[in-house]
Amino acid sequence: MGIKCHSNNTEFFLLGFSDFYPIYQACILAFFVISYIFSTFGNGLIIVVVTLAPLLDTPMYFFLRNLSFLELCTTNVIVPKVLQNSLSSQKSISTLDCAAQMFVFFTFAVSECVFLMVMAFDRYVAICCPLRYTSIITRKLCYQLTAGSWMVGFLVSLGQTSFIFSLPYCKSNHIAHFFCDIPPLLTLAHADTFNNKLSIFIACICGAALPLVVILCSYINILCSILLIHCVEGRHKALSTCISHLLSVVLYYGTAMFMYLRLGSSGPGENDRMIALFYCIIIPTVNPLIYSLRNKDMKTALRIHFSSKVHW
C-alpha cells in the first residue's frame, strides 16, 4: 500500500544553473541578457514592420507576424524570472506563479508547434497551387487557422498544467531547472506519474509529431514542385523562402521532442537545461534573423520603412 502524502507546499525554488561554476553562471547570465535583447528587438521589429508595410500585407507575413508574437511572448514568460533569480539570493516562486508560468509557456509553445504546420501548409499552397492560392488562403482562413492554433495550445496546456499540479509534492520543492517545466516537476512528485507520462506522450504525438508529419509531407511536395521549375531565379526564390521555415522547424521540433518524449529519463540534468535553452531562448532569437536576412521582401520593407523615417 502506497504512502499517502498531502502536500502543503506554497512555493518552489528554481535552482537554475546554481550548481555550475560561477564563471559558467556569469556566461549563461550574459547569454540570457544578450539573447533576450536580440529576441525582443528582432521579433518586435518584424511585428511592427509587417503591420505597417503595405508590401507585406500577405498571408505569409500575417503568419510570420503571429509567429514572432508567439516567440516574443515565450521569451518574456521565461527570461525575466531567470534574470530576477540570477541577480537575487531569493530564488523562490509561488506554486500559483509556477503553475501560471507553465500554463502560459506551454500555451505559446504548443501553439507554435501547430502554427509551424499552418505556415508549411501556406507555403505548400503558394508553391504547388499558385493559381489557386488567393482563393484557398483567404483572410478568413488565416484568422481561423491562427485561432485554431491558439485553441489547441490553450487546451493542451490547460490539461497538462492541471494534471501536473494535481500531484503531491512532498519529497522536495527544489526544481533543478531555470523555469517551471514538466520533466523536473515530475521527478519531484510523490506519486505514480505513469498517467502523467502517458498524457505527455499523447500530447507530444498530437501537438508535435502529427504537425511534423504534415510539415514533412508538405515539403516533400514543395521540393518536387521546385525541381520542376525551369527558371533558375524562380527556383532559387522558392527554395530561399522555404529553407528559412525548414530551419526553424528542424531546430524547434528536434529539441522539444527530444525533451518531452524521453519518458524513461531519470530526471533533468545539465544536458536537459542546455537543450531547453534551444527552444526557449535560442530559436526565438535566431528566427527573426532567418526570416529577415534571407527574405528580399522583408529587407525591402525594412529599407523603405527606415528611409521614410530618416527623410521625415
Automatic annotation (TrEMBL):
Signal peptide: none annotated. It is found in: Cell membrane. The chain crosses the membrane at residues 99-121, 141-159, 200-229, 241-261, 273-293. Coiled coil: none annotated. CDD domains: 7tmA_OR10A-like (cd15225). Residues 42-291 form the G-protein coupled receptors family 1 profile domain. One of its GO terms (cellular component) is plasma membrane. InterPro entries: GPCR_Rhodpsn, GPCR_Rhodpsn_7TM, Olfact_rcpt. GO terms for molecular function: G protein-coupled receptor activity; olfactory receptor activity. Its main location: membrane. Pfam families: 7tm_4. It comes from the Eukaryota. Belongs to the G-protein coupled receptor 1 family. This is Olfactory receptor. It comes from Pyxicephalus adspersus (African bullfrog).
